[in-house]
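Why do we bother with a discrete structure alphabet at all? Because it lets us treat a fold like text: something you can write down, compare, and reason about line by line. To make this less abstract, here is a complete entry for Lipoprotein. Read it the way you would read a sentence in a foreign language you are learning: slowly, and without expecting to understand everything at once.
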Amino acid sequence: MRRTALLLITATSALLAGCDALGIETATAVNARKEAEGRAIGSACRHAVRSIESCFQSNPKAGKAAVFAGWREMDQYMRDNNVVGMPSEGEAAPAASKAEGSKS
């Protein structure tokens, strides 16, 4: 009886140890990944000179707290190191055309 129980415990622990090899994520790993992705989204938005509201609207599935934390961290980094934001060309073109229209 003991031998069967010991064999069963050993087999179960071997199977559970293989979960990482199968790519099965734990809840902790999933939450950590989502947090990191949200921070990356927020910092990218800040570097692209996008408002936090615009960032929230364009990334509705990302956690707002993580996005804001990333945005705030990048904002502080940019201020401390005199980094100039780099707006994407798709966003810079409408602003430039509005400025040209107001000059006329």
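What the structure line is telling us, in plain words: Residues 92-102 have pLDDT under 50 and may be disordered. Residues 76 and 100 are 32 Å apart (CA to CA).
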